[in-house]
Amino acid sequence: MAIKEGNKIKVEYEGKLEDGTVFDSSEKHGNLLEFEVGAKQVIKGFEDAVIGMEKGEEKEITLKPLEAYGDHNPELVKKVPKEHLPKDKELKTGMMLLMKLPNGTQIPAKITEVGDKEATLDLNHPLVGKTLIFKIKIADVSS
């Protein structure tokens, strides 16, 4: 049965950067990635790649930034007063923080600059602007 939109699937995967660095894998999490195809629960290029595959099938895909996390958005770089940031640790350039959005979602933010009264945060996804290489194996398909 070829995978189509609406199928629920389980996938083994490994994600690497172009330099070979593994940034994520189902093995690292100790479980398979489960999602409904077409429900936009994973990045577009990953979802597009599984359509038409079958249980047991494997392939390797390369996703350009637009099929993955997009290009760097300068509007997501913000200056934030230090009093709005965690006070329990010294803020350093390169440090990652988890920021809570008004809707409760947490997103990673990288500190790009620390001044006397404010810090500059980059709210772009850490993998923005990167080409991603995935090895995918379909473990299960259900309708």
Characterise this structure:
- The model has no long low-confidence stretch (mean pLDDT 94).
- The strands form two sheets. Strands 1, 2, 3, 4 and 9 form a five-stranded antiparallel β-sheet that branches.
- By secondary structure, the chain is mostly beta strands.
- The chain contains two helices and nine strands.
- The chain has two domains: 8-70 and 127-142, Chitinase A, domain 3, CATH 3.10.50.40; 74-122, Thrombin, subunit H (Beta Barrel), CATH 2.40.10.
- A hairpin with a 3-residue loop joins strand 7 and strand 8.
- The radius of gyration is 18 Å and the shape is elongated.
Observed structural traits:
mainly beta, Chitinase A, domain 3, 2 domains, four-stranded antiparallel beta sheet, 8% helix, elongated
Concise overview:
The chain is mainly beta. The chain has helices at about 25-30, 45-50, and strands at about 10-15, 20-25, 35, 60-65, 75-80, 95-100, 105-115, 120, 130-140.
CATH structural architecture of the largest domain: Roll
| Cα Rg | 18 Å
What is the CATH topology descriptor of the largest domain?
A: Chitinase A, domain 3
Query: What is the name of the CATH class of the largest domain?
Result: Alpha Beta
Structural domain count: 2
Query: Which term fits the overall shape?
Result: elongated
Query: Taking all residues together, what is the mean pLDDT?
Result: 94
- In helices, the fraction of residues equals under 10%
Task: List how many beta strands DSSP finds.
Answer: 9
Strand content: 35-45%
Q: Spell the H/E element sequence.
A: EEHEHEEEEEE
**What structural class do helix, strand and pairing data support?**
mainly beta
Low-confidence stretches: none
N-to-C terminal Cα separation, in Å? 10 Å
Number of helices: 2
Q: What's the story with the biggest beta sheet?
A: 5 strands, antiparallel
